[in-house]
Design brief:
Strand order of the largest sheet: 5-4-3-6-7-8-9
Structural class: alpha/beta
Distance between the termini: 45 Å
Helix content: 25-40%
Shape: globular
Radius of gyration: 23 Å
């Protein structure tokens, strides 16, 4: 069971059933469900470990917005230790001088910020417009829609020997919710006169659709790993896919050239993020004989067991495990108890919320599966190893350039061969180019669609 096998199955059924063109009423269904299906298949088939559910955002009073805003910004769910989103903050800073954007609240970090909270708006749109949405959606449903859905689900269940419990029933409720929330976002963005919406991690399709319906351009600043198997963005050979951003702001040419994006989705290189620039100054104190494991929530136990093998087999190597923001330190402690063993003396844990780039800059080796941190390590001049647990396929293009090495945990549990073979990348600027100037960034952010 591999990500490559899942991806081949996904693209096969897309082509066989012409899913990208599957339209129900005025809604394209497949972009709404692709990621949901991908995740349930991966977890049910044992490709990924199950992710914990995100905490529910409590009811908060809706902030009343007056006036108009040419630009809007939706920040990332996760924040750094200072409580900032490092991906949207440069955009806010660049626009603040002449056209201060409207900044939405997103996730638990913004609950008490006084911002207009995305999750609360979504609930409000359902309360106001769900009945209207039902009247628009239900008359367009036909028996052949359900039969087509059943064929798709039956194909995945047969292919992987699983039962897709969460997605078995035709998702008419998802269509209704999408139409209600799209209408709400349309009315909001239109009333505010928003011309551009910058959305970090643009996975909320109703928001994108509503903004585009209101005449706004949706721009996604890169926040993590892109590859030619990205469930939200990769559509090899497609000209256009509904409810995707209009433009991606990427860190280097690699991401634009290796992500199988629809041809109509524009890409603009803005250069590396500021945290990487700051971390680059720390590489002068890189410590030899150090290995940093960047954990990943989809592979918590499997990658940790590899770290234990490496620490046991290389007592002179200082091994650090950096938990993922979605992981809990107790998960590792509990797994040690399950294994009936103690932590090796040369293995240490970093704080979950510590800056990964700082640790990367100081480490000789960086090891993971397909975390963005591995590509940051390539950019910062570390020797990088990707353990071949499901998802490693996302880094094949980087390995083909010789900028990282793969290690099979089944046959090379102590990674000795990979540690000896790992090399520093020859051209890290291909992944992370020099940042554009502030003036250039402002010009890019304010550019009209035709420019």
């Amino acid at each position: 069971m591999t990500v490559d096998r899942l991806w081949r199955a996904l693209t096969h059924i897309e082509q066989r059933e012409d899913l990208l063109n599957w339209r129900i009423g005025n809604v394209y269904l497949w972009p709404l469900v692709r990621m949901r299906l991908y995740r349930e298949i991966a977890e049910s088939a044992g490709i990924f470990e199950r992710l914990p559910e995100r905490p529910e955002i409590p009811q908060v009073p809706l902030k009343h917005i007056q006036g108009r805003s040419e630009f809007a910004v939706v920040p990332f769910l996760r924040r750094n230790l200072a409580g900032e989103d490092q991906f949207s903050q440069p955009i806010v800073d660049a626009l603040a001088g002449t056209a201060a954007p409207l900044i939405f609240g997103m996730g638990e970090h913004d609950i008490d910020s006084g911002r207009l909270q995305v999750e609360q708006l979504e609930r409000e749109f359902l309360r106001r417009y769900r009945t209207l949405a039902k009247l628009r959606v239900l008359p367009s449903l036909r028996r052949h829609h359900e039969l087509k859905w059943q064929r798709v689900i039956a194909y995945f269940e047969s292919e992987f020997g699983i039962a897709l419990k969460s997605n078995r029933v035709f998702p008419r409720w998802l269509l209704v919710n999408f139409v209600a929330q799209r209408h709400g976002w349309f009315r909001l963005f239109a009333s505010l006169g928003v011309r551009k919406v910058f959305v970090v991690n643009a996975w909320k399709r109703a928001m994108i659709a509503g903004a585009q319906k209101a005449g706004a351009i949706v721009v996604e600043p890169q926040h993590g790993l892109l590859s030619d198997m990205h469930p939200l963005l990769s559509f090899e050979g497609a000209q256009e896919v509904a409810y995707l951003p209009d433009e991606l702001l990427v860190w280097g040419r690699y991401w634009a050239e290796n992500s199988a994006l629809p041809r109509k989705l524009r890409t603009t290189v803005i250069g590396e993020p500021s945290n990487l620039t700051r971390a680059r100054e720390l590489t002068s104190v890189r410590q030899p004989h150090t290995a940093l494991f960047v954990s990943q929530a989809q592979h918590t136990t499997r990658l940790f067991e590899t770290a234990l093998h490496v620490a046991d087999s290389n007592p002179n190597l200082h091994v650090t495990v950096k938990p993922h923001p979605q992981e809990d330190r107790e998960q590792f402690t509990e797994h040690l108890r399950e294994l009936g063993r103690s932590k090796p003396a040369n293995l240490h844990f970093a704080e979950r919320d510590s800056a990964a780039t700082t640790l990367i800059a100081q480490s000789e080796y960086v090891i993971g599966v397909y975390s963005m941190a591995l590509v940051e390590a390539v950019g910062l001049g570390a020797k990088v190893i990707a353990v071949q647990l499901p998802g490693w396929e996302n880094l094949t293009a980087i390995a083909d350039r010789g900028d990282l090495v793969f290690a099979d945990p089944a046959t090379d549990v102590d990674l000795s061969r990979a540690l000896a073979a790992a090399r520093v990348a020859s051209d890290p600027s291909y992944y992370f180019s020099k940042p554009v100037s502030q003036a250039e960034l402002i010009q890019i952010l304010k550019a009209a669609p035709t420019e």
